[in-house]
Amino acid sequence: MDLPSRSDLFANARRYAKQQQLIRINPAIIDVPGSNINLLFGGASLMGEMITAAWAKCIRGLFVSTARGAQLDKVVADRFGITRLPATLATVDLVLARPTDGAGGGTVSAGNQLTTADGSVFTLQADVVFGATDLTQPGEGVAAVTGSAQNVAAGALNTNPGTGGSGSWIEQPFDATIQVTNPAGAAGGNEVESDDFFRARALTFYITARRGILAAIQFGAVSAGVGATVATAFEIVNPGSAMPAGAVELIVGDQNGNSSRAMIQGVIDNLLTFRAAGIPVFVSGGVIQFEQVIYNLEFQAGIDTVAASSAVRATLVAITQFYRPGQPLLVSDCAAAARAVPGVIVNAGSVVAPVGDVEATSNSQILRVRPQDVSFVS
User: Fold this and answer.
1) Do residues 348 and 335 lie in contact, with contact meaning Cβ atoms separated by under 8 Å?
2) What predicted TM-score, i.e. pTM, was given to this entire model?
3) E-assigned strands of the chain?
């Protein structure tokens, strides 16, 4: 039932007063602004509303599905013993290369830093050792600050101006001709786990309490604290018989569907307490597939259509950030994103494209929709 509002409480006081045999007070004075009894009932109803609001906030904090912020932290820690994941650093796979081996062998030390054109700084996590004749070596970089803004795009750290690179070394390596590329974007940079993600993770706690099952392996992946927010585990089966082959494939990604070697290793390490003993879990990053979505929407009179369209776009992008590897893009999700925005009228033909549910073509494919992938026609 609904909690009483201030007007409800005032009406209750008025009703009580009118039921009494008042001699000194005319009940009509109750509704005269500024009269003594009007001020008395008004103040009492306001205090009652504040008490009701405080009580409602306390009740809201008793349930995982309704608690927010610090209340959600407390109820989840109390019931499940798990805590909100902190902000994480983005990591990126690097390739260090030089045109000749004229400088001989040497080491690009861990701690050397690179920066993108817009100032995102990444640090080498480990020494990159070049032998006397080596021309290329892999490396791993980690962002200097946390947050999703550090999930820089592929090529953002490229240091070779001749190929259009705009990144640069902050400290020159032993061989000044060594250039860096990042063939894939950085991954795993997140803000502090949001209420929605934290709540969804907490609500899977009991169904993943039995370690070794697929759901538990997925839970262990997204609880690793290395930026993996989506994961799907699949049993590897023997061809022909379809009997389990005693191994599991796990595909992981961040909110944007990206991954890195450091993220994958962090997930592997965390799975020691989630996978079954002796059963290997082969962890790999997903392959992102961006899908185009076209709407033909109608709007209620008086609605700012530009703002409403932007809200539809943002809602759909947010929904697909929860898509796990192998999960299809549903037309119903596209329609639901539009229907969630006040003033938008969703009809049978409101979703022009895709014309049907888009199935992932493999277990490793992660479907995503970016803001630039959403368009509107009339």
Assistant:
1) no
2) 0.78
3) 89-97, 106-108, 113-115, 121-124, 128-130, 136-146, 168-169, 179-181, 230-237, 244-253, 281-285, 287-290, 293-295, 298-299, 344-345, 351-353, 365-368, 374-376
